[in-house]
Design a protein that fits this description.
Elements (H helix, E strand, L loop, with lengths): L11 E2 L9 E2 L2 E4 L4 H8 L3 E4 L6 H11 L5 E4 L3 H5 L9 E2 L2 H5 L8 H6 L5 E5 L4 H12 L4 E6 L2 H18 L4 E6 L5 H11 L3 E4 L6 H6 L1 H21 L4 E7 L8 H19 L4 E7 L1 E3 L5 H10 L4 E3 L5 E2 L1 E3 H13 L5 E5 L5 E2 H11 L4 E4 L12 E5 L19 E2 L5 E4 L6 H16 L3 H10 L14 H22 L1
Parallel strand pairs: 1-3, 4-5, 7-8, 7-10, 8-9, 10-11, 11-12, 12-17, 13-16, 14-20, 19-20
Antiparallel strand pairs: 2-3, 5-6, 15-18, 17-22, 21-22
């Protein structure tokens, strides 16, 4: 810092009492309880956490103690970021919500991590997504013989393939990385890929996951999440894939929205497939939000703070479970390795986080003062720096999410993975309903689709009786205007 132009160090702080009262580079070392006095006396504007290996729990304690000092809190990049080339040790960054929300991960079980992967042919659907791409990175570290990346988005596939191929080359892994464009709704494409590469393990991550978007695009959400899952599980079963792991969601539990209901039906499909064949082990892993994923509130809050506000929260009491993407991905792989057939695994997500508190903390981490307003357009600089506004729940959004339908989870050999016991349907009975659901989708019959969701054992309980699908709404408006025109014509 002495040699740079951006920062001038004014004091050092350490909680090791043996270092306190010493001097380093002409600066005295103080105890942490002296920070408020030091800030007043020195006019400090930034606090730097210079221990990148510090555990998240301790980091959270420190930041909580410093939040109200109206200082920007920065940190040195972690060793993993430096080694991977993502950051330099000289780079300082603002402490992020990810640093505070994620727990210190449990050391993964190497036997579970490599069981279905090492030396095998592994395929990941939705390989370019937030979770899918990190699962691919974790898989690559276990050195499969072949890693098949199955992805609908050309840009996402190009990005993850380039990343993984560069990593494999740098670390001299023998893995062949195979990028395949395709949709999970296309059965023949899936079968051709599984057969051509002799796929042994599949992680099915491809899905439409954004609640309001699926609420407004019902048919495409169901086609992708339900019938895409049916297509890929059927292909896996037909061609003798050894292990199939569905990436599910906490929103599948007593779903209040189309997305959650579609993912619970995807679970029913995997459960039914498991009953039909012992040769393919089908299992499901259910968990909540991951930090930094596409659509996550954290990147949204970050962008809003950088624009000067307002930060928008949908409800003052809304809360969510959070987990880092690497931890979630490692747990998914380990849970899948424990599958016996038809298992529904539930990840221990820790304690839920109140989103309003998260928004307040993120503003304070930037050294700014948050304040609440009734409308996003209101700004009162005399009250603080960044306004926070409650905008109302979005379509299909619940206040609280759950991970279990029942209250009877069973422990597994991993401390953060539980097993749920959930209702299932035999394949013949399930297919009879899915055939009617497909017909309703093809006919764009939204009332029948909703009725079938209520009929299935998914505990579907929408928050509103209104159909939010945008195309359906536009068509109904057009028909209404057409009927009014006819009536006007008759009256004339």
């Amino acid at each position: 810092m002495f040699h740079g132009r951006d920062y001038a160090p004014v004091a050092l702080v350490d909680d090791d009492s043996s270092l306190q009262n010493l001097a380093v580079g002409g600066l005295s070392v103080f105890a942490p309880d002296q920070i408020p006095r030091l800030v007043r006396e020195t006019g400090a504007q930034v606090i730097l956490l210079a221990v990148p290996s510090m555990g998240r729990a301790r980091r959270r304690e420190i930041v909580n103690d410093l939040e109200d000092l109206q200082l920007e809190i920065k940190t040195i990049p972690g060793m993993s970021e430096i080694i991977s080339g993502k950051a330099k040790i000289s780079e300082l960054r603002t402490v992020s919500a990810e640093d505070l929300l994620g727990r210190d991960p449990v050391t993964p079980d190497p036997e579970l991590l490599c069981k279905n992967i090492a030396g095998r042919v592994v395929m990941v659907s939705g390989a370019g997504g937030s979770i899918g791409s990190e699962i691919c990175r974790q898989i690559l570290s276990q050195q499969p013989a072949t890693l098949v990346l199955f992805e609908l988005s050309e840009l996402a596939l190009y990005t993850i393939e380039a990343d993984l191929s560069a990593t494999a080359k740098r670390l001299q892994y023998p893995t062949q990385v195979v990028p395949i464009l395709g949709s999970v709704q296309h059965s023949r494409r899936l079968e051709a890929v599984i057969k051509a590469f002799n796929v042994q393990t599949i992680y099915h991550s491809a899905a439409y996951k954004h609640v309001p978007l699926v609420e407004e695009n019902v048919v495409e959400g169901i086609r992708n999440n339900v019938f895409g899952t049916l297509a890929i599980t059927s292909a896996a079963r037909k061609l003798g894939v050894e292990n199939f792991i569905l990436i599910s969601t906490d929103k599948a539990v007593r779903p209040a929205n189309i997305m959650g209901a579609s993912k619970r039906i995807a679970e029913l499909i995997c459960q039914a497939q498991a009953q039909e064949t012992p040769s393919t082990v089908f299992s499901m892993v259910r968990f909540g939000n991951v930090l930094g994923s596409s659509g996550s509130v954290i990147p949204q809050f970050q962008a809003q703070i950088e624009r000067g506000g307002p930060v928008t929260v949908t409800h003052k009491d809304i809360n969510r479970y959070f987990m880092t993407i690497p931890e979630a991905s490692q747990l998914v792989i380990q849970a899948g390795a424990m599958g016996k057939g038809g298992d529904v695994f539930v990840l221990d997500m820790g304690e839920p986080v109140k989103i309003m508190d998260l928004a307040m903390s993120m503003v304070k981490l930037h050294g700014l003062t948050p304040y609440t307003v009734d409308h996003p357009d209101q700004f009162f600089p005399e009250q603080g720096d960044i306004p926070i506004c409650v905008t109302g729940l979005r379509k299909g959004e619940k206040l609280y999410e759950e991970l279990l339908i029942g209250n009877n989870p069973s422990p597994t050999q991993h401390p953060r993975i539980m097993m749920a016991s959930e209702v299932s349907l035999p394949m013949e009975e399930l297919m009879a309903v899915l055939d009617r659901l497909l017909s309703a989708c093809e006919n764009f019959d939204l009332p029948t689709i909703v009725a079938i969701l209520h009929e299935l054992p998914v505990d579907y309980g929408p928050l509103s009786r209104d159909i939010s699908d945008l195309l359906w709404g536009a068509e109904q408006d057009n028909e209404g205007r057409h009927d009014m025109a006819i009536e006007d014509g008759v009256r004339t």
